Amino acid sequence: MKITVIGSGYVGLVTGTCLAEMGNQVCCLDVDPAKIAILRQGGIPIYEPGLDEMVKRNVAAGRLSFTTDVAESVAFGDIQFIAVGTPPDEDGSADLQYVLAAARNIAEHMDDYKVVVDKSTVPVGTADKVRDTIAATLARRGADIPFSVVSNPEFLKEGAAIEDFMKPDRVVVGAEDERAIDVMRRLYSPFQRNHDRILFMDVRSAELTKYAANAMLATRISFMNELANLAETLGADIELVRRGIGSDPRIGYHFLYPGAGYGGSCFPKDVKALVSIGKENGHPLRVLAAVEAANDAQKLRLVDKVVARFGEDLSGRRFTIWGLAFKPNTDDMREASSRVIIRELVRRGASVAAFDPVASHEASRVLEDVAGVDFAEDMMDALDGADALLIVTEWKQFRSPDFEQIRARLKAPVIIDGRNMYDPAWVRGLGFDYLAIGR
Ligand SMILES: NC(=O)c1ccc[n+]([C@@H]2O[C@H](COP(=O)([O-])OP(=O)(O)OC[C@H]3O[C@@H](n4cnc5c(N)ncnc54)[C@H](O)[C@@H]3O)[C@@H](O)[C@H]2O)c1
Asked: Where in this chain does the record put each UDP-glucose/GDP-mannose dehydrogenase C-terminal domain (predicted)?
Protein backbone atom coordinates (compact mmCIF):
# COMPACT_ATOMS: atom_id res chain seq x y z
CA MET A 1 0.00 0.00 0.00
CA LYS A 2 1.16 3.58 -0.52
CA ILE A 3 1.14 5.61 2.67
CA THR A 4 2.00 9.17 3.60
CA VAL A 5 2.73 10.05 7.21
CA ILE A 6 2.39 13.73 8.07
CA GLY A 7 4.61 14.65 11.02
CA SER A 8 7.81 12.67 11.54
CA GLY A 9 8.11 12.86 15.33
CA TYR A 10 7.99 10.01 17.86
CA VAL A 11 4.69 8.66 16.55
CA GLY A 12 4.94 9.53 12.85
CA LEU A 13 8.43 8.17 12.38
CA VAL A 14 7.68 4.93 14.22
CA THR A 15 4.38 4.48 12.35
CA GLY A 16 5.93 5.15 8.96
CA THR A 17 8.94 2.93 9.59
CA CYS A 18 6.93 -0.01 10.95
CA LEU A 19 4.49 0.19 8.03
CA ALA A 20 7.46 0.18 5.62
CA GLU A 21 8.90 -2.81 7.49
CA MET A 22 5.74 -4.73 6.53
CA GLY A 23 6.42 -4.06 2.86
CA ASN A 24 4.40 -0.89 2.28
CA GLN A 25 5.71 2.16 0.43
CA VAL A 26 5.91 5.05 2.90
CA CYS A 27 6.69 8.74 2.53
CA CYS A 28 7.18 10.73 5.76
CA LEU A 29 6.59 14.48 5.66
CA ASP A 30 7.64 17.08 8.19
CA VAL A 31 7.58 20.87 8.24
CA ASP A 32 10.88 20.89 10.10
CA PRO A 33 13.62 20.90 7.44
CA ALA A 34 16.32 20.13 10.04
CA LYS A 35 14.51 16.90 11.03
CA ILE A 36 14.11 15.80 7.41
CA ALA A 37 17.76 16.63 6.65
CA ILE A 38 18.92 14.38 9.53
CA LEU A 39 16.68 11.55 8.30
CA ARG A 40 17.86 11.92 4.72
CA GLN A 41 21.47 11.73 5.89
CA GLY A 42 20.75 8.40 7.58
CA GLY A 43 20.40 9.81 11.09
CA ILE A 44 17.53 9.73 13.59
CA PRO A 45 16.31 12.93 15.27
CA ILE A 46 15.06 11.09 18.39
CA TYR A 47 16.28 8.28 20.62
CA GLU A 48 14.12 5.18 20.29
CA PRO A 49 15.66 1.71 20.70
CA GLY A 50 15.82 -0.23 17.42
CA LEU A 51 14.43 2.56 15.27
CA ASP A 52 17.76 3.54 13.79
CA GLU A 53 18.43 0.18 12.12
CA MET A 54 14.83 -0.22 10.99
CA VAL A 55 14.84 3.19 9.29
CA LYS A 56 18.15 2.43 7.56
CA ARG A 57 16.94 -0.98 6.38
CA ASN A 58 13.73 0.37 4.87
CA VAL A 59 15.38 3.40 3.27
CA ALA A 60 17.95 1.07 1.69
CA ALA A 61 15.16 -1.18 0.41
CA GLY A 62 13.51 1.83 -1.23
CA ARG A 63 10.33 1.55 0.87
CA LEU A 64 10.81 4.62 3.10
CA SER A 65 11.50 8.21 2.09
CA PHE A 66 11.40 11.65 3.68
CA THR A 67 10.30 15.00 2.36
CA THR A 68 9.32 18.54 3.28
CA ASP A 69 7.38 18.91 0.03
CA VAL A 70 3.63 18.87 0.74
CA ALA A 71 2.49 18.42 -2.87
CA GLU A 72 4.83 15.45 -3.29
CA SER A 73 3.70 13.83 -0.04
CA VAL A 74 -0.01 14.25 -0.76
CA ALA A 75 0.39 12.76 -4.24
CA PHE A 76 2.29 9.80 -2.76
CA GLY A 77 -0.10 8.04 -0.40
CA ASP A 78 -3.60 6.65 -0.84
CA ILE A 79 -3.63 6.69 2.95
CA GLN A 80 -2.64 9.95 4.65
CA PHE A 81 -1.77 9.58 8.33
CA ILE A 82 -1.88 12.75 10.41
CA ALA A 83 0.66 12.32 13.24
CA VAL A 84 1.44 15.92 14.14
CA GLY A 85 1.58 17.32 17.66
CA THR A 86 -1.54 18.33 19.62
CA PRO A 87 -0.06 20.42 22.45
CA PRO A 88 -2.23 21.98 25.14
CA ASP A 89 -3.65 25.40 24.45
CA GLU A 90 -3.67 28.00 27.23
CA ASP A 91 -6.91 26.60 28.69
CA GLY A 92 -5.62 23.01 28.61
CA SER A 93 -7.68 21.99 25.57
CA ALA A 94 -5.80 20.34 22.69
CA ASP A 95 -4.48 22.82 20.15
CA LEU A 96 -5.65 21.50 16.78
CA GLN A 97 -3.90 24.00 14.54
CA TYR A 98 -1.32 21.47 13.28
CA VAL A 99 -3.91 18.77 12.65
CA LEU A 100 -6.15 21.13 10.71
CA ALA A 101 -3.19 22.58 8.79
CA ALA A 102 -2.31 19.03 7.73
CA ALA A 103 -5.94 18.44 6.65
CA ARG A 104 -5.93 21.67 4.61
CA ASN A 105 -2.67 20.67 2.93
CA ILE A 106 -4.12 17.30 1.93
CA ALA A 107 -7.24 18.93 0.47
CA GLU A 108 -5.22 21.57 -1.32
CA HIS A 109 -3.22 19.00 -3.30
CA MET A 110 -5.27 15.77 -3.53
CA ASP A 111 -6.61 14.67 -6.89
CA ASP A 112 -8.02 11.25 -6.11
CA TYR A 113 -9.64 9.30 -3.24
CA LYS A 114 -7.73 9.48 0.07
CA VAL A 115 -8.24 7.85 3.43
CA VAL A 116 -7.24 10.49 5.96
CA VAL A 117 -6.31 8.91 9.28
CA ASP A 118 -6.08 10.88 12.53
CA LYS A 119 -3.30 9.21 14.48
CA SER A 120 -2.63 12.23 16.67
CA THR A 121 -4.43 12.22 20.02
CA VAL A 122 -7.39 14.51 19.43
CA PRO A 123 -10.60 15.48 21.23
CA VAL A 124 -13.91 13.89 20.34
CA GLY A 125 -15.30 15.67 17.30
CA THR A 126 -11.93 16.34 15.65
CA ALA A 127 -12.59 13.93 12.79
CA ASP A 128 -15.65 16.06 11.98
CA LYS A 129 -13.46 19.18 11.95
CA VAL A 130 -10.93 17.45 9.71
CA ARG A 131 -13.76 16.38 7.38
CA ASP A 132 -15.21 19.91 7.31
CA THR A 133 -11.78 21.43 6.66
CA ILE A 134 -11.09 19.10 3.76
CA ALA A 135 -14.59 19.58 2.31
CA ALA A 136 -14.35 23.38 2.54
CA THR A 137 -10.92 23.43 0.88
CA LEU A 138 -12.08 21.10 -1.91
CA ALA A 139 -15.20 23.26 -2.42
CA ARG A 140 -13.02 26.34 -2.73
CA ARG A 141 -10.95 24.51 -5.33
CA GLY A 142 -14.16 23.52 -7.12
CA ALA A 143 -12.97 19.91 -6.82
CA ASP A 144 -15.34 17.01 -6.22
CA ILE A 145 -13.05 14.27 -4.89
CA PRO A 146 -14.15 11.54 -2.47
CA PHE A 147 -12.33 10.98 0.82
CA SER A 148 -12.84 9.25 4.17
CA VAL A 149 -11.74 10.36 7.62
CA VAL A 150 -10.75 7.68 10.10
CA SER A 151 -9.64 7.83 13.74
CA ASN A 152 -6.78 5.48 14.60
CA PRO A 153 -5.31 6.58 17.93
CA GLU A 154 -1.84 5.36 18.80
CA PHE A 155 -1.03 3.50 22.03
CA LEU A 156 2.73 3.00 21.63
CA LYS A 157 5.05 3.70 24.55
CA GLU A 158 8.22 5.66 23.94
CA GLY A 159 11.19 3.42 24.69
CA ALA A 160 9.27 0.34 23.48
CA ALA A 161 7.60 1.95 20.50
CA ILE A 162 8.64 -0.52 17.83
CA GLU A 163 7.61 -3.57 19.84
CA ASP A 164 4.28 -1.88 20.66
CA PHE A 165 3.60 -0.96 17.05
CA MET A 166 4.67 -4.30 15.57
CA LYS A 167 2.83 -6.36 18.22
CA PRO A 168 -0.07 -4.21 19.35
CA ASP A 169 -2.40 -5.27 22.17
CA ARG A 170 -5.16 -3.77 20.08
CA VAL A 171 -5.60 -1.49 17.08
CA VAL A 172 -8.49 0.91 17.58
CA VAL A 173 -10.08 2.09 14.34
CA GLY A 174 -12.97 4.51 14.27
CA ALA A 175 -14.40 4.36 10.77
CA GLU A 176 -17.88 4.67 9.46
CA ASP A 177 -17.76 3.86 5.75
CA GLU A 178 -17.10 0.49 4.18
CA ARG A 179 -14.40 1.69 1.80
CA ALA A 180 -12.27 3.10 4.63
CA ILE A 181 -12.94 0.09 6.89
CA ASP A 182 -11.68 -2.20 4.13
CA VAL A 183 -8.50 -0.14 3.61
CA MET A 184 -7.76 -0.11 7.37
CA ARG A 185 -8.39 -3.85 7.67
CA ARG A 186 -5.91 -4.55 4.86
CA LEU A 187 -3.37 -2.10 6.28
CA TYR A 188 -3.31 -3.72 9.71
CA SER A 189 -3.78 -7.37 8.71
CA PRO A 190 0.00 -8.07 8.75
CA PHE A 191 0.10 -6.97 12.42
CA GLN A 192 -2.40 -9.53 13.62
CA ARG A 193 -1.56 -12.81 12.05
CA ASN A 194 -2.27 -14.84 15.14
CA HIS A 195 -5.54 -13.31 16.23
CA ASP A 196 -7.73 -10.38 15.38
CA ARG A 197 -6.64 -7.30 17.26
CA ILE A 198 -8.55 -4.61 15.40
CA LEU A 199 -11.42 -3.04 17.28
CA PHE A 200 -13.64 -1.27 14.79
CA MET A 201 -15.90 1.34 16.31
CA ASP A 202 -17.51 4.66 15.54
CA VAL A 203 -15.16 7.62 15.20
CA ARG A 204 -16.16 9.40 18.42
CA SER A 205 -15.70 6.31 20.55
CA ALA A 206 -12.23 5.79 19.04
CA GLU A 207 -11.27 9.37 19.83
CA LEU A 208 -12.47 9.05 23.41
CA THR A 209 -10.79 5.65 23.90
CA LYS A 210 -7.34 7.18 23.62
CA TYR A 211 -7.99 9.83 26.27
CA ALA A 212 -9.70 7.29 28.50
CA ALA A 213 -6.67 4.99 28.36
CA ASN A 214 -4.14 7.66 29.29
CA ALA A 215 -6.42 9.15 31.93
CA MET A 216 -6.85 5.74 33.59
CA LEU A 217 -3.10 5.13 33.67
CA ALA A 218 -2.41 8.60 35.05
CA THR A 219 -5.08 8.01 37.70
CA ARG A 220 -3.36 4.84 38.91
CA ILE A 221 -0.08 6.71 39.25
CA SER A 222 -1.52 9.67 41.15
CA PHE A 223 -3.51 7.33 43.37
CA MET A 224 -0.34 5.45 44.31
CA ASN A 225 1.63 8.65 44.81
CA GLU A 226 -0.90 10.00 47.28
CA LEU A 227 -1.04 6.67 49.11
CA ALA A 228 2.77 6.60 49.21
CA ASN A 229 2.91 10.00 50.84
CA LEU A 230 0.38 8.82 53.41
CA ALA A 231 2.34 5.59 53.97
CA GLU A 232 5.40 7.65 54.93
CA THR A 233 3.46 9.35 57.68
CA LEU A 234 1.83 6.12 58.83
CA GLY A 235 5.07 4.15 58.88
CA ALA A 236 3.92 1.70 56.19
CA ASP A 237 5.95 0.58 53.15
CA ILE A 238 4.14 1.41 49.90
CA GLU A 239 6.14 -1.22 47.99
CA LEU A 240 4.61 -3.94 50.16
CA VAL A 241 1.19 -2.35 49.78
CA ARG A 242 1.72 -2.25 45.99
CA ARG A 243 2.38 -5.97 45.91
CA GLY A 244 -0.50 -6.60 48.24
CA ILE A 245 -3.00 -4.93 45.95
CA GLY A 246 -1.37 -5.76 42.59
CA SER A 247 -1.84 -9.47 43.27
CA ASP A 248 -5.61 -8.92 43.04
CA PRO A 249 -6.40 -9.68 39.38
CA ARG A 250 -9.09 -7.01 39.41
CA ILE A 251 -6.32 -4.48 40.11
CA GLY A 252 -3.18 -5.97 38.52
CA TYR A 253 0.45 -4.90 38.94
CA HIS A 254 0.81 -2.46 36.06
CA PHE A 255 1.18 1.26 36.62
CA LEU A 256 1.14 1.11 40.40
CA TYR A 257 4.63 2.50 40.90
CA PRO A 258 4.82 5.53 43.15
CA GLY A 259 7.50 8.04 42.23
CA ALA A 260 8.39 11.60 41.38
CA GLY A 261 5.28 12.22 39.26
CA TYR A 262 4.35 11.34 35.70
CA GLY A 263 5.59 13.42 32.76
CA GLY A 264 6.08 12.98 29.05
CA SER A 265 4.33 14.24 26.00
CA CYS A 266 1.06 12.41 26.65
CA PHE A 267 -0.26 11.95 30.19
CA PRO A 268 -0.06 15.58 31.35
CA LYS A 269 -1.52 17.03 28.17
CA ASP A 270 -4.15 14.33 27.67
CA VAL A 271 -5.39 14.56 31.26
CA LYS A 272 -5.60 18.36 30.85
CA ALA A 273 -7.41 18.00 27.54
CA LEU A 274 -9.94 15.50 28.91
CA VAL A 275 -10.60 17.70 31.94
CA SER A 276 -11.21 20.56 29.54
CA ILE A 277 -13.52 18.43 27.35
CA GLY A 278 -15.53 17.50 30.46
CA LYS A 279 -15.85 21.12 31.51
CA GLU A 280 -16.87 22.28 28.03
CA ASN A 281 -19.57 19.64 27.87
CA GLY A 282 -21.02 20.27 31.31
CA HIS A 283 -19.57 17.12 32.90
CA PRO A 284 -16.74 18.15 35.20
CA LEU A 285 -14.32 15.24 35.61
CA ARG A 286 -13.56 15.71 39.30
CA VAL A 287 -11.41 12.60 39.69
CA LEU A 288 -9.16 13.64 36.82
CA ALA A 289 -8.78 17.20 38.03
CA ALA A 290 -7.49 15.74 41.30
CA VAL A 291 -5.16 13.39 39.40
CA GLU A 292 -3.54 16.41 37.78
CA ALA A 293 -3.25 18.42 41.00
CA ALA A 294 -1.74 15.42 42.83
CA ASN A 295 0.81 14.99 40.05
CA ASP A 296 1.85 18.65 40.08
CA ALA A 297 2.54 18.35 43.81
CA GLN A 298 4.34 15.02 43.40
CA LYS A 299 6.84 16.49 40.97
CA LEU A 300 8.14 18.58 43.88
CA ARG A 301 8.13 15.71 46.35
CA LEU A 302 11.90 15.19 46.04
CA VAL A 303 12.52 18.88 46.62
CA ASP A 304 10.29 18.70 49.71
CA LYS A 305 12.59 15.97 50.99
CA VAL A 306 15.68 18.01 50.17
CA VAL A 307 14.22 21.00 52.02
CA ALA A 308 13.28 18.86 55.03
CA ARG A 309 16.87 17.62 55.18
CA PHE A 310 18.88 20.72 54.21
CA GLY A 311 16.57 23.68 54.94
CA GLU A 312 14.63 26.16 52.79
CA ASP A 313 17.73 28.03 51.67
CA LEU A 314 19.93 25.82 49.51
CA SER A 315 22.58 28.45 48.70
CA GLY A 316 25.97 26.86 48.26
CA ARG A 317 24.52 23.34 48.14
CA ARG A 318 25.10 21.05 45.20
CA PHE A 319 22.90 18.15 44.16
CA THR A 320 23.45 15.32 41.73
CA ILE A 321 20.51 14.27 39.55
CA TRP A 322 20.53 10.83 37.96
CA GLY A 323 17.97 10.60 35.17
CA LEU A 324 16.51 13.53 33.26
CA ALA A 325 14.22 12.02 30.60
CA PHE A 326 10.60 11.61 31.70
CA LYS A 327 11.15 7.84 31.71
CA PRO A 328 13.94 5.41 30.76
CA ASN A 329 14.81 4.52 27.16
CA THR A 330 13.87 7.85 25.68
CA ASP A 331 15.46 11.28 25.31
CA ASP A 332 12.04 12.92 25.60
CA MET A 333 12.14 15.77 28.13
CA ARG A 334 8.56 16.98 27.64
CA GLU A 335 6.97 17.62 31.07
CA ALA A 336 9.77 15.61 32.72
CA SER A 337 9.79 15.83 36.53
CA SER A 338 13.53 16.58 36.40
CA ARG A 339 12.76 19.98 34.85
CA VAL A 340 10.59 21.04 37.77
CA ILE A 341 13.01 19.62 40.34
CA ILE A 342 16.09 21.27 38.84
CA ARG A 343 14.40 24.66 38.47
CA GLU A 344 13.24 24.57 42.09
CA LEU A 345 16.64 23.52 43.46
CA VAL A 346 18.33 26.30 41.51
CA ARG A 347 15.67 28.83 42.56
CA ARG A 348 16.54 27.99 46.15
CA GLY A 349 20.23 28.71 45.48
CA ALA A 350 21.64 25.25 44.77
CA SER A 351 23.72 24.11 41.83
CA VAL A 352 23.09 20.82 40.02
CA ALA A 353 25.25 18.16 38.38
CA ALA A 354 23.02 16.10 36.12
CA PHE A 355 23.49 12.81 34.32
CA ASP A 356 21.29 10.98 31.84
CA PRO A 357 22.41 8.20 29.47
CA VAL A 358 20.73 9.80 26.43
CA ALA A 359 18.75 12.92 27.33
CA SER A 360 21.50 15.34 28.41
CA HIS A 361 21.60 17.12 25.10
CA GLU A 362 17.83 17.64 25.01
CA ALA A 363 17.87 18.57 28.72
CA SER A 364 20.53 21.23 28.20
CA ARG A 365 18.30 22.71 25.50
CA VAL A 366 15.14 22.87 27.61
CA LEU A 367 17.06 24.09 30.68
CA GLU A 368 19.13 26.59 28.73
CA ASP A 369 17.82 29.51 30.79
CA VAL A 370 18.69 27.89 34.13
CA ALA A 371 22.10 28.87 35.54
CA GLY A 372 24.16 26.48 37.62
CA VAL A 373 23.39 23.17 35.90
CA ASP A 374 26.29 21.01 34.69
CA PHE A 375 25.79 17.90 32.60
CA ALA A 376 28.19 15.03 33.31
CA GLU A 377 29.21 12.41 30.76
CA ASP A 378 29.60 9.77 33.43
CA MET A 379 27.15 8.96 36.22
CA MET A 380 29.88 8.71 38.85
CA ASP A 381 31.58 11.96 37.81
CA ALA A 382 28.30 13.75 38.51
CA LEU A 383 28.63 12.87 42.21
CA ASP A 384 31.83 14.70 43.09
CA GLY A 385 31.34 17.03 46.04
CA ALA A 386 27.53 16.93 45.98
CA ASP A 387 25.44 17.11 49.15
CA ALA A 388 23.07 14.37 47.96
CA LEU A 389 22.18 12.14 45.02
CA LEU A 390 18.61 12.47 43.70
CA ILE A 391 17.32 9.70 41.43
CA VAL A 392 14.60 10.95 39.10
CA THR A 393 14.47 8.44 36.19
CA GLU A 394 14.84 4.68 36.69
CA TRP A 395 17.41 3.86 33.99
CA LYS A 396 18.66 0.26 34.26
CA GLN A 397 22.24 1.33 34.85
CA PHE A 398 21.19 2.91 38.16
CA ARG A 399 19.77 -0.34 39.50
CA SER A 400 22.94 -1.82 40.87
CA PRO A 401 25.53 0.93 41.11
CA ASP A 402 28.85 0.83 42.96
CA PHE A 403 27.64 2.16 46.32
CA GLU A 404 31.20 2.35 47.69
CA GLN A 405 32.08 4.77 44.95
CA ILE A 406 28.89 6.77 45.45
CA ARG A 407 29.71 7.20 49.12
CA ALA A 408 33.30 8.15 48.41
CA ARG A 409 32.41 10.78 45.84
CA LEU A 410 29.45 12.46 47.54
CA LYS A 411 30.19 15.05 50.22
CA ALA A 412 27.78 13.22 52.52
CA PRO A 413 26.15 9.80 51.98
CA VAL A 414 22.60 10.92 51.18
CA ILE A 415 20.43 9.31 48.48
CA ILE A 416 16.96 10.66 47.76
CA ASP A 417 15.39 8.08 45.50
CA GLY A 418 12.36 9.21 43.51
CA ARG A 419 11.85 5.78 41.90
CA ASN A 420 12.29 3.34 44.80
CA MET A 421 15.19 1.58 43.09
CA TYR A 422 16.84 0.07 46.16
CA ASP A 423 16.12 -2.02 49.21
CA PRO A 424 16.07 0.57 52.01
CA ALA A 425 17.52 -1.78 54.65
CA TRP A 426 20.40 -2.75 52.40
CA VAL A 427 21.30 0.81 51.39
CA ARG A 428 20.97 2.09 54.96
CA GLY A 429 23.17 -0.83 56.05
CA LEU A 430 25.87 0.54 53.72
CA GLY A 431 25.85 3.75 55.74
CA PHE A 432 23.59 5.89 53.55
CA ASP A 433 20.91 8.22 54.68
CA TYR A 434 18.32 6.84 52.24
CA LEU A 435 15.01 8.58 51.55
CA ALA A 436 12.56 7.00 49.10
CA ILE A 437 8.90 7.43 48.19
CA GLY A 438 6.39 5.94 50.59
CA ARG A 439 8.76 3.71 52.50
N1 LIG B 1 4.92 10.41 21.87
C2 LIG B 1 4.13 9.42 22.24
O3 LIG B 1 4.54 8.52 22.98
C4 LIG B 1 2.72 9.34 21.74
C5 LIG B 1 2.00 8.15 21.91
C6 LIG B 1 0.68 8.09 21.44
C7 LIG B 1 0.11 9.20 20.84
N8 LIG B 1 0.82 10.35 20.70
C9 LIG B 1 0.18 11.48 20.03
O10 LIG B 1 0.69 11.55 18.70
C11 LIG B 1 0.79 12.93 18.28
C12 LIG B 1 2.21 13.24 17.86
O13 LIG B 1 3.05 13.08 19.01
P14 LIG B 1 4.63 13.05 18.87
O15 LIG B 1 5.16 12.72 20.23
O16 LIG B 1 5.02 12.18 17.72
O17 LIG B 1 4.94 14.57 18.51
P18 LIG B 1 6.30 15.22 17.93
O19 LIG B 1 6.30 16.61 18.38
O20 LIG B 1 7.45 14.32 18.25
O21 LIG B 1 6.09 15.16 16.34
C22 LIG B 1 5.19 15.96 15.64
C23 LIG B 1 5.86 16.34 14.33
O24 LIG B 1 4.90 16.95 13.47
C25 LIG B 1 5.54 17.95 12.72
N26 LIG B 1 4.51 18.82 12.14
C27 LIG B 1 3.75 19.76 12.73
N28 LIG B 1 2.88 20.30 11.87
C29 LIG B 1 3.08 19.69 10.68
C30 LIG B 1 2.48 19.80 9.40
N31 LIG B 1 1.46 20.64 9.16
N32 LIG B 1 2.95 19.03 8.41
C33 LIG B 1 3.95 18.17 8.63
N34 LIG B 1 4.56 18.00 9.81
C35 LIG B 1 4.13 18.76 10.83
C36 LIG B 1 6.47 18.59 13.72
O37 LIG B 1 7.52 19.31 13.09
C38 LIG B 1 6.98 17.36 14.49
O39 LIG B 1 8.16 16.84 13.92
C40 LIG B 1 0.28 13.75 19.46
O41 LIG B 1 -1.08 14.01 19.29
C42 LIG B 1 0.49 12.82 20.64
O43 LIG B 1 -0.39 13.08 21.70
C44 LIG B 1 2.11 10.43 21.13
From this structure: 320-424
Q: Which of 167, 201, 235 is the last residue of a domain?
A: 201
Q: How many residues does the chain have?
A: 439
Residue 356 Cα to ligand 1 middle (Å): 24
Assess contact for 219 and 254: CB atoms under 8 A. Answer: no
Domain range spanning residue 313? 299-435
CB–CB of 407/431 below 8 Å?
yes
pLDDT higher than 80, residue 193: no
Q: How far apart are the CA of 350 and the centre of ligand 1, in A?
A: 35
Q: Are strands 147-151 and 318-322 parallel, antiparallel or unpaired?
A: unpaired
Answering whether pTM is above 0.85, one says yes
What gap in Å lies between CA 251 and CA 158, rounded to an integer? 24
Residues 150 and 255 in one domain: no
Asked if residue 206 belongs to a domain, the reply is no
What does the pLDDT look like over 172-192, one tens digit per residue? 999 999 999 999 999 999 998
How much is the CA Rg of the chain, to the nearest whole Å? Answer: 24
Chain center to CA of 127:
23
